[in-house]
Amino acid sequence: MSHSSINFAQKLALIDQHWQPRVVAEMNDYQFKLVKLQGEFVWHHHETTDETFLVLDGTLRIEFRDGSVEVSAGEMYVVPRGVEHKPCAEREVKLLLIEPRGVLNTGEEGGERTAQNDVWI
């Protein structure tokens, strides 16, 4: 067991691609994933789980079919299970995702934007 803290800035410096979540820790069945986002993602939903976006740097817009929410650095938003959403970032956003182990970034939609799961940094 490691007794070292997890430094987000150091871990984020290891990420060189957008939309590729990287696991930095686990708690019970949940994973904490750092990711850099820029541009628009795909519409998707997660059938069986909520998804938490905790913004570390930048401003994330999460679009829904009936509106949107802006999440700034130091803020978080929980997308309820089954709710279709599309993350968007005009400028690069650095954030922490919190979700159960095994959740794909594209949810039930799949496709070419699906990132490899369970990659640790």
From TrEMBL:
CDD domains: cupin_YdbB-like. Residues 39-96 form the Cupin type-2 domain. InterPro entries: Cupin_2 (IPR013096), PKS_Associated_Protein (IPR052044), RmlC-like_jellyroll (IPR014710), RmlC_Cupin_sf (IPR011051). Pfam families: Cupin_2. Transmembrane segments: none annotated. PANTHER family: 16.7 KDA PROTEIN IN WHIE LOCUS. This is Cupin type-2 domain-containing protein. It comes from Dyella flagellata.
